[in-house]
Design a protein that fits this description.
single chain, 61 residues, mainly alpha, 1 helix, 0% strand
C-alpha cells in the first residue's frame, strides 16, 4: 500500500539534552575537601588498622 508523505514537514533537528549546571565555587571546594580526606584516610587507615590488630594480638597473648 502506498502512503504519501510529501505533505509532511521534516522532523525537527536533533538537539542534545540540556546539560546540568557546573558546580559552584563552594561546591568545588567542598568536593575537593571530601576527596582529600578520603585520600588521607586511604593512606592512614590501613596503618591504624594494623596497629589495632597488633595491639589486640599482644593483648590476647
Amino acid at each position: 500500500m502506498f502512503v504519501d508523505f510529501r505533505d509532511q514537514p521534516p522532523p525537527p533537528p536533533w538537539q542534545p539534552p540540556p546539560r546540568r549546571p557546573r558546580l559552584t565555587a563552594r561546591q568545588e571546594r567542598t568536593l575537593a575537601a571530601i576527596i582529600g580526606v578520603n585520600v588521607l584516610l586511604l593512606i592512614v587507615a590501613p596503618i591504624g588498622g594494623a596497629t589495632i590488630i597488633g595491639a589486640l594480638a599482644t593483648l590476647f597473648r
